């Protein structure tokens, strides 16, 4: 299910004290757990975990690897990570994850003085964690002024449910040229 195992240890201290000691507080909940398990991990382990490309990670807690999904990363006002939430998953479980939409080919739009207006930047997907993509890629290089990217244009696996409707506008293509300049350009073209 996953390749890397990340070390966490149970904690009895409050999050503030854990952070003062240079570690990151976390919690594991869901799955077969009766109660959430407060835990902590080193910043080094956290950085390795956040650079990982898989939705499902293995957390080594008390010598036992737990399959989990990172559900939430809480940050302070300065952007520093202050808490992690993990949901335990078992084989066959279905989870909901927010997945970013990545637009590629924006350079092509820039060279034609077109502007990408991102309306929706992430979508919630539900399904087995192994089948949920890390991101949804949308190629906008071939789009022109006035074109739209809609929910139906997103490449979402058939086995995954999404919280977006087919006609929801995800992005639209505008112009870097002001409205008056656009009209003048149209008049010259006629």
Give a written overview of the molecule:
The structure is a single chain. This protein has 2 domains: 5-92, Ribosomal Protein L25, Chain P; 96-189, Beta Complex (RNA Polymerase Alpha Subunit, Chain A, domain 2), CATH 2.170.120.20. It has helices at residues 15-20, 43-50, 106-111, 179-189, and strands spanning 5-10, 23-29, 37-42, 56-61, 64-75, 81-88, 95-104, 114-118, 122-127, 136-139, 148-150, 161-162, 169-175. The strands form 3 sheets. Strands 1-3-2-6-5-4 form a 6-stranded mixed beta barrel. A 4-stranded mixed sheet has the order 10-7-9-12, with no helix packed on it. A 3-stranded antiparallel sheet has the order 8-13-11. The model has no long low-confidence stretch (mean pLDDT 86). It is of the alpha+beta class. The radius of gyration is 22 Å and the shape is elongated.
